[in-house]
Every structure is written in structure tokens, then in C-alpha cells.
Amino acid sequence: MFYSIRHVTRFRYSAPVRETVMELRMQPRSEGPQTLRSFQIVTNPRAQLYAYTDHLGNAVYHFNLLREHEELRIEAQAVVELGAAPSWPERLDGLEWGRYNNYNLRDEQFDMLGPSKFARLSPELVLFMKIAELEKPDGDPLTAMKKLTRAIYDSFDYQSGITEVHSPIEHALRERRGVCQDFAHIMLAIARAWGVPARYVSGYMYHRGNRDRSQADATHAWVEAYLPSLGWVGFDPTNNILAAERHVRAAVGRDYADVPPTRGTFKGVAESELSISVGIEPTQAPVRHEDFLKVARPMESPPVLSMTERLYHHQQQQQ
After folding, report:
1. Cβ–Cβ under 8 Å, residues 282 and 1
2. Which of 26, 36, 105, 297 is the most buried (most CB within 10 A)?
3. Nearby residues of 18 by Cβ (< 8 Å), 6 or more positions away
4. Are 172 and 189 in contact, with CB atoms under 8 Å apart?
5. Residues ≥6 apart with Cβ < 8 Å to 165
6. How many CB atoms sit inside 10 A of residue 221's CB?
7. Could you tell me which residues are beta bridge partners of residue 44?
8. How many Å apart are CA 176 and CA 172, to the nearest integer?
9. Which tens digits make up the pLDDT trace of 88-129?
10. Which residues lie closer than 8 Å to 236 by C-beta, 6 or more apart?
11. pTM across the whole model
12. Three-state SS across 181-228?
């Protein structure tokens, strides 16, 4: 399956600002069954983009817009190919818990075991775990993560506007409402308390024809848990499903603080307004570059040239 993704972000300012510095994490990852086929970012006003890969393997673009402006528009477009999702077993054997050891875990997994800015234990979370009977995991880690996914789905209503981008998990726990970011942070904190390495995934989800709770015109977030026998497995507590062919991964981190799609600042005395539009649709396979190189007319045989003529001809082609 191929998906075309269009992600537009617009910042409007109440007065002209002198400079904007911005960092972007919008490029879908290319690994496992997911392959990035094309990607581009365009800004208005135009800015010189620079890129690097962070320590978690995420593509990061950044720029410094030095001209005065009252609006900044960032448009990212991508084409992604998603292969069939792995066929996970219904459950794992009881020895899986014992495989969380120094032999099976590397730095990548150990980094996802400790508390982070938005995913950490608190009295409110401990109380929720007790009420939802999540103090101890049931059965094997895969079964436990499925139960946790379902428990968060059943315990919280999906409603935007209740929490903000930097709201702690206690806000959603008190209100019993929130969005995908809140549910992912709650799930991360509980999984790590159980000793399961878990990471935050920022990306996109295709919705059409499916009864999903998450919004179709926004970015999406879910969780990947590390199971020694299977590797990283995605769980979507917002929609109570495993992450599969409809989930497009853009970036992974300890929580949202590691992977916001945009992060930046500006110089000037002004209020800012943020607008976002996201669209993801199935598309045809992109045309390969080689398809433009089919020979329409064969070359005629070149005339026989002297050595001097051949050297001069070659030099002219290089200039």
C-alpha cells in the first residue's frame, strides 16, 4: 500500500517578527515494512533547509529565517510504501518476562525504561493503575500490553481541547478525557513501571472507512513496546488496535518532548497563531526514475575519428 501525505503548518503573527528558528521532525522513517519513497519540505517565505539524523534515527530539518515576516508556512509532502504488518502471535510464553535482561537489551531499549518529561509515575497514575487493576501485568508481556491498550481505551473519552501540547498526564487522568498524545504518555509510564521498554511514536494514520476515535486531519501518536522475542511492537491505545498498515511512523522518542513535528522560536513582540492541516490518502506507486530513461531513438554509429579529434570531442563534452 502506498500513501501520499501532505502536512501543512502555518504560523501567523500579530505583528512582523524579525527572525524565526525552526526544527522539524516530519519525514517518515524508512525501516521494517515501511519505506519512504519521496519527501520534500517547502517554506514560505523561502528558507535554506539543513538536515541531520538524531541519535534515535529520526530525520531532523532545521532553518533560520532572517527576513521580517508576519506569516510562516511549512508544507511537507511524502509518499510512503507500507508492506504487510508482521503477523504477531496471540500470546507469548511465560518465560518472556525473564528475557528482559542485559543479554537481550541494548542501550536503545534501556533508554526507554526510565521516566521521562511526560511519561512518569505520579500519585494520580498509581491510583488509576489500582482502579483499573493494572498494578501488576497479567500473563506474558504481549498479553499485558494488549490489556493495557484496552484499559486506556475504555477508561478515557477522546476529546480535543481538554489538554494542551505540554499538559502533564495528571490533567487527562483527572478529566478522564484527552487525545492520542495523553493516552500514549499514560501507556508509556505504566509499561515502563512494569519493566517493559516503551517508546513514543509520532506519525500519521489513515482513517477513511474505519471507525477510529482519533482525528483524520491531524498527526497521530501511539506506543511501541519492546518484546525480546518479537522486537518493537506498536500499540494504539486511542483506537484499541495494534499499529499496522494504516500507521505511518515519522519519529520515535521517549515522549512527545523528543519528537514534536515543529519546535522553534521567533524574535519580535507579537502573539502567534498556529494552524495545522494533515491529509493522508492511498496513492499509486511513484514512477521510478528509470521509467523516464527508456530509449525512444537509438543513437547512430559515430564516425571514425582520429586520436586528436577524439580527445577534442571528449573535452568539449566535459565543459
Report:
1. yes
2. 26
3. 66, 68, 266, 267, 268
4. no
5. 181, 256, 260
6. 25
7. 73
8. 5
9. 999 999 899 999 999 999 999 999 999 999 999 999 999 999
10. 149, 205, 222, 223, 242, 243, 247
11. 0.88
12. HHHHHHHHHHHHHCCCCEEEEEEEECCCCCCCCCCCCCCEEEEEEEEC
- Give the per-residue pLDDT at 288: 56
CA distance 3 to 254: 26
Cβ(86)–Cβ(288) below 8 Å = no
pLDDT recorded at residue 210: 78
Cell 496471540 maps to which residue? Answer: 90
Q: Which amino acid is at 95?
A: L
What are 24's three cell numbers?
A: 522539524
- Report d(CA 66, CA 141) in Å as an integer: 50
Q: What is the pLDDT of residues 237-293, one digit of tens each?
A: 999 999 999 999 999 999 999 999 999 999 999 999 999 999 999 998 775 544 444
Q: ∠214-211-245 over CA atoms, to 5°?
A: 75
Q: Three cell numbers at 55?
A: 541519535
Cell 515494512 belongs to residue: 33
pLDDT at 110: 96
- The three cell numbers locating residue 36: 519512504
